[in-house]
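Can't paste images in this forum, so I'm doing it all in text. The chain is below; anyone willing to post the predicted structure tokens underneath?
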Amino acid sequence: QVQLVESGGGLVQAGGSLRLSCAASGTFFRINAMAWYRQAPGKQREFISLITGGNITNYADSVKDRFTISRDNAKNTVYLQMDGLKPEDTAVYYCNCRAELRPGVRSDFWGQGSQVTVSS
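Text version of the structure:
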């Protein structure tokens, strides 16, 4: 199994920056893609960004050019650098990973969520 522990959320003014981290631990063969999602009050969880094991990245249009995803494979950690934050970025941010528990056996895991609040 895989445990994902997030850190780095908080309160920031519009235009500010925050950096989220998510560290994976547990028993697994390897971590494949890692991603970030968010869920605002009264809304469905939405995709934000993804990074593959080969460092190919993808972003939602709403955060493109403002957010940057990266990973440290040695630490099994994914980061989300969030710049130019807007009040509409306020949400709980969730880390996700697809892990191979053993070769060919994959499963998805979620972090506990980190609150990001952007004040206007």
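The mean pLDDT is 96. The longest strand covers residues 91-102.
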